[in-house]
Specification:
This protein is mostly helical and 164 residues long. It has one domain. It has 3 helices and no strands. The longest helix has 62 residues, at 37-98. It is rod-shaped, with a radius of gyration of 27 Å.
Length: 164
């Protein structure tokens, strides 16, 4: 699961960079053009591509939310397992201190050896899910900017005489 999370984080980071480049490029299209039918065609083209861009952002948001759900479930399972191992280690530690036997010491050592990788894995899952939340927030911001740009180009395409 750790490798899957890391590869998904890399994929999502690359996707966000590509989408941000796309929205920045779309935001500069159509600026400073002369009036006339060429401008109207360019604005229609920008609006159509902007609508498609908004749809792509929405699709990516849905995909990201699905993956966040999977990783949240995995995180919850590992939290429960880690907490149970920690409680068991504490109980065995108390038993080992009060009535020491070689078996209780060995069991405590075994639990600690297992607990450390569980904590590490949970740490990676928790931080990965937090990064996915940040990616979702970035997608939200991009979609808002894209929708604003589409509306702006739509209003500009109508022209100043229809803006009343």
């Amino acid at each position: 699961m750790e490798e899957r999370l890391k590869s998904y984080l890399k994929r999502t980071e690359r996707l966000l960079e590509e989408l941000e480049r796309g929205i920045n490029a779309a935001g500069t299209e159509g600026e400073g053009q002369n009036s006339g039918s060429a401008e109207a065609r360019q604005q229609e083209k920008t609006q159509d591509s902007g609508s498609g861009y908004c749809e792509r952002l929405q699709k990516e948001k849905v995909e990201l939310l699905t993956q966040i759900g999977f990783f949240q479930h995995e995180r919850l399972v590992h939290l429960i397992v880690t907490a149970l191992f920690a409680m068991l280690a504490i109980i065995v530690f108390v038993v080992a201190v009060t009535a020491f036997s070689p078996w209780s010491g060995l069991l405590l050592l075994l639990l600690l050896v297992l607990l450390i990788p569980y904590i590490r894995h949970y740490y990676i899952l928790e931080n990965g899910v937090q990064r996915l939340y940040e990616y979702y927030d970035r997608l939200e911001a991009m979609q808002s900017r894209a929708e604003t740009a589409v509306l702006r180009y739509s209003a500009a395409a109508k022209g100043p005489h229809n803006a009343r």
